[in-house]
Amino acid sequence: MLKRGGTIGILGGGQLGRMMAMSAAQLGYRCIAYAPEGDNVVSGVCEDLFVNKWDDKAALAAFAARCDVVTWEFENVPVATTRAMPEGRIFPHPRALETAQDRLNEKRFVEDLGGRPAAYMRVDSRADLEAAADRLGAPGILKTRRDGYDGKGQWRIGSDRDAQGLRLPDVPLIYEGFVEFEAEFSVILVRGRDGEIRFWDSARNTHEDGILTASTLPSGDLIEAQVGEARELARQVADALEYVGVLTLEFFATREGPIFNEMAPRVHNSGHWTIEGATTSQFENHIRAVAGLPLGETATLARTVTMTNIIGAGIKASQDHLKTPDTHLHDYGKARVREGRKMGHVTQLER
Ligand code: AMP
Fold it and tell me: In the chain, which residue ranges form alpha helices assigned H by DSSP?
């Protein structure tokens, strides 16, 4: 168990790390973070920020020497960086990143555990893309296998003609058949060092242009009926990876049941509502898990919860939300406002 006053290292410098560090401070821990150059908003709540490239061996060693345990807040941290941290002191284990960073590996891994992803085919050339669009049909979605987030690295292929006209990026790709879903939801769990697992309620997620815009509870009958099967898969994934910390699996709710979309080996935007809406937030439970502390309860505390992301210039009027009762503003403190950038979120509760 990590003693009070111990130091937690966070790989990544974004808002997820910032909210993790706020929970760690509450529990009496210190945080330092490591991230390449950028708008690293974790810095406001960390004792120190190492601004270095992911492959700077000397800087990584200096960072590791100051940490009692290490975790990450960003799923595109190179696996080699996590492997440079001391074995047994990084949670989750780097194998979780290795599995989740490549969409093809991730789908095969989940299929082996009995999960059902959208129909997919590997694409390494134009001929592969045409074959995939032919076999799986259009519309479909072409995605980069690595480094995608918030809808980036994705192209909707509406017809065979789109497939012929697209300039293919020179990276490994995957083509997915379009899932005619009724709704989207995520399963968020925390797994402790002793293997105990707790789940939060699954919110209904709404996306626009591939970016999460809102998560709401209750999620409705259709999702509620599918959560049990989805949780079973998430539990198997967590156990198979001997996972420690918060893990997220995203699903499409369809008439044929839950279809696995993707997993994130980290705290997740669709779990931000847990800060005010659950007995213990995803951030606090992630810190508890990586520190080897007992996990907290995950019960929902309100009749309804609405978490809305503040994207781009919307942040300018964000303080207006404070006039609404039981409404909680989180401004990530990002200096650069960009279209499509997650700047903050607001959670509104009805108790
Ligand atoms: P992803 O980054 O893969 O989670 O994709 C972002 C969003 O795009 C998802 O949450 C869906 O709204 C949509 N999407 C992704 N893949 C598919 C698919 N195969 N079928 C239908 N919609 C999809």
Answer: 15-26, 57-65, 79-83, 94-100, 103-112, 126-136, 160-165, 221-240, 274-277, 282-291
